[in-house]
Design goal:
Helices cover 29% and strands 21% of the residues. The chain is α+β, with helices and mostly antiparallel strands.
Length: 974
């Protein structure tokens, strides 16, 4: 198999004009330094309150990706790479690999493994007492049994392994629930195929491939095989180090260092670094020279801390360098070594790094490797003296193997990549420490921008849930400080500072197990309180609350009369509506201006309840730091989220017409509630019961504002009984950002013209089935005093990929001609659109807009300045994207505008999805000339012109892109 890959690769390289062996270097030109950094990281799945693991993924990846990455590296001693071994990952590996005497005495699973996780508990129950396995855990077990790169599920030539029984069980799993024996077979085969198949023979496990009728003894044999492999992992990396590869570390629990520094937790950051170095020296023989700053997050403060801890180098993302320089870095700038705050910084080439993480798995191995080398060759040819530069590739070291779709779990690609690199005499692989020893030149960055590979730090801070977690962490940290920082309490705090908890909080990321991450975070905080001697009564109640994952909902604008009667024109169809139970049939929530409006449909006419001692209460989450209770005010029912506010009215207090006032009660954090309504808001706190229940709540009473989220649920209670609730799963309501300016310009765009020059089609995956997701229908400009606001209204604006800014599909390229001079060529960050601009209307500013802040809220100038950050928000119910640009960045907006709409692809060139001649699952279709035709779906053409004819004006034979014409934006007198 390996021989076939190399031969096939040779053919492709020759076809590209890059002959083997190697692509010959220039006679007088030194090789290009290539630094590859593999980041190995998993969250801390260990629950310190139970000493068991909530999720199995450390074990799952240890016996395949982690062992394979080191083993394959050892086959290529001349290819030097760098491995970041994150300390809490190593700690978990050691925990699995060793069975302590007190664990062995417990028997059961601990006779075989040194650590027990949820999946192993479920398999043990299934094998010994299937009836004891709850329906929920059984369903989770079955889902997890197939959460694997399915290289053994398809009988194709691309994959050398196929397991017919596992493939059949996977088919049955998608059709019906598995029987007990089928589920045990699936669980056992999952355990088998977690292990690198290249180790099956020496572990004596070949007999289990395609096996059926597994017993517990068979499962135990598979687990013993796993423990053997886990026990080899650390030694495999030590061997890789002996061959010239570099091993580096991270702060122990993977915290976001700039956030720790900004919150005054510098001592904690240094403590985690020292803890990491002590472990590194003990397990791997020496302290690390380099450090992976978690999530490649950097700032002036964090770099100073790394230097203070004794590290020599770290890496960061290309986007951070662009911010530091004020322009997109040239290749020569990107491949320099930089010094800042006493640290050497290597900036990764983001495009090639992301190709490995997200793109190459969908290509043939030979094509992927050839593309990688071709991009390196471009860099080699462009640099005058490559020996004084380092081309850095930095990648999440195990995720790309099992998540990116690589055949044979990435083993073929990794071997082919190392083989090809070793054959190139114009490429020299180096570790960063080796590069520091041979390259003397350093560029200086006086002030390092704060950011990460994701752009800014908004993935870990800024959303209500994230900031609430930081508040809870701060309270626990203070308790530990008051106790004198006992070691066990401090370790629990360090664990709670890990990035993973904050990554999964909020709506910008979704693991489908966010409730487990929340519970682990709380367990660390409870552990910190306990270890610091805090009385149980002083531990915040919310830390005992098991989260029920809320269902996201976007609120629409409504205009009800609040009279308890649903009338036409009130807009309730645009509200977010969820089902209820008991006497509450459904709950609808909308907004208008400064108020939240609620409509409740009941099982019987609510007018019949007037005068009864019944309470309807809308419970809401609070702002970070607000006290919160864990149960309802009357019956003590948990709703699955922290309850900060109770907006309540009593049917006995309504007048004869069913009209009354809603009152706010604030939680005290210990189960008590205090009346907290303002007399100034009485007129906006109205309630009415007739055929339905309607009431209004001012945003100010809830402590929320447009652009934010709030978790909600309603209950109907007496003082003794819960009569109804809606919904069963809380609603995470997103309140849209409001336009705050005065409309000065608006232009309509034809509906249904999201076809480019007339032939473009959407990709074929079902996620693109909603019509109009690229169909821009209106563009407006508003004067908001100190800023310009622009509204883009689409036919549909769904968000299936949970883009943090509220939308998933459109990518906007905006070009403004508002001053003298400018450029008629695309900005380098927008070249993928394949268009040119009218020379008489050369653009001065370029803005890229997408649903992800890491790359979707940036502005550049034609003079090479930028990226500057602009504000992007959305109103999904309206189908509206809102862009706010400070006038300090763009003083003038009247002029000529180009508005282009493409398909967002987080891993495409310039984040634009490519369009081919024929549509594919993730590629658009219908392009008449994929290399030259515009790769955009919609464009606002000027009056009297046709979008289709302008976009069709390219000339592939002449090598000319279509020349766009702008729209004229001018204001009428105010």
């Amino acid at each position: 198999m390996k021989k076939w890959v190399v031969v096939s690769l040779s053919v492709v390289l020759v076809g590209l004009g890059l002959s083997q062996p190697g692509f010959a270097a220039g006679a007088d030109k030194a090789p290009l330094n290539l630094a590859i950094v593999w980041h190995q990281h998993q969250p801390l799945y260990w629950n310190r309150l139970t000493s068991e693991y909530e999720l199995p993924w450390v074990r799952v990846h240890a016996v395949q990706e982690y062992i394979d990455s080191a083993r394959i590296s050892a086959e290529y001693p001349d290819v030097h790479v760098t491995f970041n071994l994150q300390p809490s990952l190593l700690w978990q590996l050691e925990d699995y690999a060793s069975i302590r005497p007190e664990e062995a005495s417990r028997g059961g699973l601990y006779e075989i493994v040194g650590a027990v996780d949820n999946h192993l508990r479920w398999v043990w129950a299934l094998a010994h007492d299937p009836a004891a396995l709850s329906a929920e855990d059984r369903a989770r077990l079955e889902d997890q049994d197939f959460w694997i790169n399915g290289y053994m599920l398809a009988d194709t030539a691309a994959d050398p392994y196929f397991d017919g029984r596992y493939a059949e069980l996977n088919r049955l799993h998608n059709e019906r629930d598995l029987t007990d024996q089928e589920l045990l077979d699936a669980s056992a085969l999952f355990l088998l195929w977690q292990i690198s198949p290249e180790l099956h023979e020496e572990l004596g496990l070949l007999r289990y491939r395609s096996h059926t009728g597994f017993t517990w003894d068979d499962v135990a044999a598979l687990l013993r095989g796993q423990m053997t492999v886990i026990g080899r992992v650390v030694d495999a990396y030590k061997m890789a180090s002996d061959l010239g590869n570099e091993l580096i570390t991270s702060p122990f629990y993977h915290p976001i260092l700039p956030l720790l520094a900004a919150r005054g937790y510098e001592a904690d950051a240094l403590g985690q670094m020292e803890q990491a170095q002590a472990q590194h020296a003990e397990l791997l023989g020496a302290r690390a020279t380099g450090v992976w700053s978690p999530e490649q997050a950097v700032s002036d403060g964090s770099l100073a801390l790394l230097a203070q801890a004794g590290f020599r180098w770290t890496s960061a993302d290309e986007g951070i360098l662009a911010q530091a320089l004020g322009h997109t870095p040239t290749l020569a700038e990107l491949t320099q070594i930089y010094e800042s705050q006493g640290m050497n910084v290597f900036f990764r080439e983001t495009g090639v790094s992301n190709d490995i993480s997200f793109a190459y798995g969908n290509k043939g191995t030979d094509v992927a490797v050839a593309d990688f080398l071709a991009k390196l060759r471009v860099a080699y040819d462009e640099l005058d003296d490559p020996s004084q530069h380092v081309f850095t590739v930095a990648v999440d070291g195990e995720n790309w193997m099992f998540m990116a779709g690589y055949p044979n779990n990435g083993r073929d690609f990794l071997r082919a990549l190392y083989t090809a690199i070793a054959a190139c005499d114009w490429v020299k692989t180096v570790t960063p420490t080796e590069a520091l020893a041979t390259i003397e030149a350093r560029a200086h960055i006086a002030s390092m921008p704060t950011g990460s590979w994701a752009g800014d730090l908004s993935t870990w801070s800024g959303e209500v849930e994230e900031d609430q977690a930081w508040e809870e962490l701060g309270l626990a940290r203070s308790a530990v400080t008051r106790a004198g920082d006992p070691a066990s309490a401090l370790d629990a705090i360090y664990a709670a500072e890990g990035s993973d908890w904050f990554w999964w909080y909020g709506t910008d990321q979704d693991s489908n197990t966010d409730d487990i991450y929340d519970w682990l975070f709380k367990a660390h905080l409870v552990g910190a309180y306990e270890a610091s001697g805090t009385p149980e009564a002083d531990v915040p109640d919310v830390l005992s609350l098991r989260l029920v994952l809320p269902a996201p909902a976007s609120l629409g604008e409504v205009a009800p009369a609040v009279d308890g009667v649903v009338a036409s024109g009130e807009g309730w169809a645009d509200a977010a509506t969820v089902s209820g139970s008991g006497d509450l049939v459904s709950l609808s929530v909308g907004y208008k201006e400064t108020n939240l409006y609620v409509l409740v449909t009941t099982a019987s006419a609510p007018s019949s309840w007037i005068g009864q001692d019944l309470y309807l209460t809308l419970y809401a989450s609070g702002q970070p730091g607000a006290a919160a209770n864990v149960a309802t005010k009357l019956t003590g029912t948990s709703l699955g989220f922290a309850l900060a506010s109770a907006m309540q009215f009593n049917f006995s207090k309504l007048d004869a017409q069913g009209v009354g006032v809603v009152s706010k009660y604030a939680a005290d954090g210990h189960g008590g509630w205090t009346y907290a309504s303002s007399i100034r808001t009485t007129g906006d706190r109205r309630a009415a019961a007739a055929t339905h229940i309607e009431f209004s709540v001012p945003f100010s009473e809830l402590g929320v504002e447009p652009g934010k989220t709030v978790t909600l649920a309603a209950v109907l209670e007496t003082k003794d009984a819960l009569l109804g609730r809606a919904p069963a799963r809380p609603m995470l309501a997103s309140i849209p950002t409001l336009i705050r300016g005065v409309e000065r310009f608006v232009v309509a765009d034809p509906a249904g013209d999201d076809h480019g020059a007339g032939t473009l089609t959407y990709p074929t995956n079902a996620v693109f089935s909603t019509e109009g997701i690229f169909d821009l229908q209106s563009y407006s400009v508003y004067d908001a005093g100190t800023a310009w606001q622009m509204a883009f209204d689409f036919a549909a604006l769904p968000n299936p990929w949970t883009g943090p800014l509220g939308f998933s599909f459109p990518l906007l390229y905006l070009y403004f001609d508002v001053a003298e001079g400018g450029s008629a060529a695309s900005h380098p960050e927008g070249e993928a659109a394949q268009v040119a601009f009218a020379p008489q209307h050369a653009w001065d500013a370029f803005v890229r807009v997408a649903g992800w802040p890491a790359y979707g809220r940036h502005m550049w100038t034609a003079a090479g300045e930028g990226p500057f950050l602009v504000e992007v928000a959305s109103d999904p119910k309206r189908g509206r994207i809102i862009v706010t640009i400070p006038k300090s960045l763009l003083p003038e907006i009247e002029g000529w505008h180009y508005v282009l709409v493409g398909s967002q692809d987080g891993y495409g060139q310039n984040y634009l999805r490519s369009v081919g001649a024929t549509a594919g699952e993730w590629v658009g279709g219908g392009s008449p000339a994929p290399g030259w035709a515009p790769a955009i779906y919609d464009y606002i053409a000027p009056d009297g012109a046709s979008q289709e004819s302008i976009l069709a004006s390219f000339n592939a034979a002449a090598g000319a892109y279509a020349e766009l014409q702008p729209i004229h934006v001018t204001f009428d007198s105010p």
